[in-house]
TrEMBL record:
Family membership: Belongs to the class-I pyridoxal-phosphate-dependent aminotransferase family.
UniProt entry tagged with the keyword Transferase: yes
InterPro entries: Aminotransferase_I/II_large (IPR004839), AspAT/PAT-like (IPR050596), PyrdxlP-dep_Trfase (IPR015424), PyrdxlP-dep_Trfase_major (IPR015421)
Listed name of the protein: Aspartate aminotransferase
Source organism phylogeny: Bacteria, Bacillati, Actinomycetota, Actinomycetes, Mycobacteriales
GO biological process terms held by the UniProt record: amino acid metabolic process
Pfam families listed in its UniProt record: Aminotran_1_2
């Protein structure tokens, strides 16, 4: 029997705390120091150009009133984000600004599980917090193959009927596999969720890196913002994870309820961070630079995948920021360059898939051959 099952008090907190402190947990273990390339942390690392840094400096210089603000978030930022989402089809929705996408996702899970009893249908492999939160809340987790589902929406639609979940989690482009889906597939899945009466969390933090870009649950004709919540952040899309600015898109009544709930523990996200995010979302200079970053991310990832494949590494899939890899026979991999040191990668066990690794090549100035050599050296040493 788990300690959390006998606790008096908050079972969610007890279960989550016990799980996160288990020696077997693959998630939330900070990576150790690495002498090689850091291809483990899942973020796009491209320094902001000087003209954007100067713009941010001007914003900071004008921010003389660092007082409490609207619990829903800075109004110009909310308007800018919704305008951007509306390009993908968003409508009749409001947005809550959170402290990063992770908080937005956590709020979405807690809210929907409160209103929709039953299991959570979530991608496996997948971003582990969804499983951690669901299990802490006492909700069973049923997995589906995100790569197969991206090509055949029937995999999800049949699971909705067969498993009768309360909540469906979508995450495209997907972490850790990088796989994306087109809008027609998204439309079909959202329509199936409506027919089955299932609530949806659509985690779209990698949307701008998708191929095609802009695929969103908000663009689906059947999208219902009262039951279908969208999670997003500037961490990936604007390459500024340190700002800790996230978005939760939903019906206005849902946003008001969650703003009130959030106000009991967090007040609001930092005023200066929100102002900087608004500048980055609306600046023509920023848009031009981000477009170049996205092209660079795709080119480096594709080139690295080709080098790894040529060396005998099985690249299962790649897209957005990531390559999802397995080495079926590490000893048979072609030799790396002399003196190559291991690259830091994310072990698949943290996503529920031991024997796999996630590689993030979204790094400024990264040489694809050097990145591949580091990954190969890591796989060789792991055996």
């Amino acid at each position: 029997m788990r300690v959390a099952d006998t606790v008096v008090g908050d079972p969610f907190f007890a279960r989550l705390l016990e799980t996160l402190n288990s020696p077997d947990i693959g998630y939330a273990r900070p990576p150790g120091p690495s002498a090689g390339l850091d291809l483990g942390v899942g973020e796009a690392r491209y320094p902001l150009p000087s003209n954007l840094c100067e713009a941010i400096g001007r914003i900071a210089g004008q921010a003389d009133r660092q007082w409490y603000g609207d619990p829903r978030g800075y109004a110009p930022l909310r308007a800018a984000y919704l305008a951007d989402l509306c390009e993908a089809g968003g409508r009749d929705a409001a947005v809550l600004i959170t402290c990063g996408g992770k908080e937005a996702a956590g709020l979405a899970v807690r809210y929907l599980l409160y209103h929709h009893r039953g299991p959570i249908l979530a991608p496996s492999p997948g971003w582990q917090p969804y499983t951690l939160w669901a299990e802490a809340a006492g909700a069973p987790v049923i997995g589906y193959d995100p790569i197969a589902a991206s090509r055949d929406p029937g995999i999800v639609t049949r699971a909705l009927v067969g498993t009768q979940p309360g909540v469906l989690v979508l995450n495209y482009p997907h972490n850790p596999t990088g796989i994306g889906m087109d809008q027609a597939v998204m439309d079909e899945i959202i329509a199936a969720a409506v027919r089955s009466g299932v609530a949806v969390i659509s985690d779209e933090v990698y949307r701008v890196f998708g191929d095609p870009t802009g695929v969103s649950a908000a663009a689906a004709p059947a999208w219902d913002p009262h039951r279908h919540l969208i999670v997003d952040s500037v961490s990936k899309s604007l390459t500024v994870a340190g700002l800790r600015v996230g978005f939760l898109v939903a019906d206005r009544t849902v946003v008001e309820a969650l703003a009130a709930y959030r106000g009991a523990y967090a007040s609001h996200t930092g005023v200066l961070s929100q102002r900087v995010a608004a500048e980055l979302l609306t600046s023509a200079v920023a848009r031009s630079w981000f477009a170049e970053v996205r092209r660079n991310v795709a080119a480096t990832r594709t080139e690295t995948a080709a080098v790894l494949t040529g060396a005998g590494v099985k690249v299962i899939s790649h897209g957005a920021l990531y390559l999802w890899c397995a080495a079926t026979n590490p000893a048979a991999l072609l030799p790396t360059t002399p003196g190559a040191v291991p690259a830091q990668v994310s072990d698949g066990s943290g996503f529920g898939a031991p024997g796999r690794v996630r590689v993030c090549t979204a790094r400024d100035g990264l040489d694809a051959a050097a990145a591949a050599a580091g990954v190969i050296e890591t796989l060789r040493r792991r055996g």
